[in-house]
């Protein structure tokens, strides 16, 4: 177990196998687009859990599904695929980002050559900007992006875990990229997750069936359209036809 600590938090990585050369991450961020994309990749690529990250000194969560609990930050891989996916459901505060990133990268220091993060970002945008952009170190661009047909993000700054990982790339030989797309506040922003999955497929030459997620995206769109119509009816002094959920 690799440990990194501050006066307030301590992070430890427990694993059953060594990491692969590439680490792909999705964290609990705005719109949950990156987290949704990473979790979907785990299912579509038939990955199995090979480790997890523990956090002491932070408000803990223990997610569960179907009555079964799970670790909040998990590592997945499988034999024959040079890719480890980190699915991080615990929100990491900005002040804890560097020790968290250092714990993960110190654990993987000897094996991992590159890190890519899938991220939805809260930026003002028009429909023509509904695409994925990259922010990447020079060596990552040369290694992965020459033929990927992805545009760079124009300007801004990275903070939190994304910023800490990118800084590690600037200070070392680690190749680092953040694939970012504009996201909306509704959770999850499935359309943003689909754009991140498309970028991942192109960069890493993966074959991922996104049709189930595309269907879910349509359900999300319909849900919010119906919700907006209900709210407009109430604001206009009219009762909605179906009051079951009011």
Automatic annotation (TrEMBL):
UniProt keyword annotations, A-Z: Proteasome
InterPro entries, alphabetized: Proteasome_assmbl_chaperone_2 (IPR019151), PSMG2_sf (IPR038389)
Recorded GO CC terms: proteasome complex
UniProt name for this protein: Proteasome assembly chaperone family protein
Lineage, uppermost ranks: Archaea, Methanobacteriati, Methanobacteriota, Stenosarchaea group, Halobacteria
């Amino acid at each position: 177990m690799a440990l990194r600590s501050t006066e307030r938090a301590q992070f430890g990585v427990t694993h059953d196998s060594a990491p692969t050369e590439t680490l792909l991450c999705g964290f609990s961020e705005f719109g949950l687009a990156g987290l949704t994309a990473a979790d979907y990749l785990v299912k579509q690529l038939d990955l199995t859990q090979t480790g997890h990250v523990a956090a002491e000194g932070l408000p803990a969560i223990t997610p569960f599904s179907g009555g079964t609990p799970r670790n909040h930050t998990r590592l997945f891989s499988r034999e024959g695929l040079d890719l480890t996916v980190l699915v991080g459901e615990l929100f990491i505060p900005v002040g804890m980002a560097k020790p968290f990133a250092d714990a993960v990268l110190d654990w993987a220091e000897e094996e991992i050559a590159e890190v890519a993060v899938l991220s939805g970002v809260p930026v003002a945008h028009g429909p023509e900007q509904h695409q994925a952009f990259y922010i990447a170190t020079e060596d990552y661009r040369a290694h992965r992006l020459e033929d990927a047909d992805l545009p760079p993000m124009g300007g801004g700054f990275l903070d939190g875990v994304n910023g800490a990982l990118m800084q590690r790339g600037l200070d070392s030989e680690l190749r680092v990229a953040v694939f970012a797309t504009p996201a909306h506040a509704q959770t999850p922003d499935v359309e943003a997750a689909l754009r991140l999955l498309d970028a991942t497929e192109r960069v890493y030459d993966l074959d991922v069936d996104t049709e189930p997620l595309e269907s879910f995206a349509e359900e999300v769109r319909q849900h919010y359209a119906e919700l907006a119509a209900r709210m407009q009816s109430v604001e206009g002094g009219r009762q909605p036809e179906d009051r079951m959920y009011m």
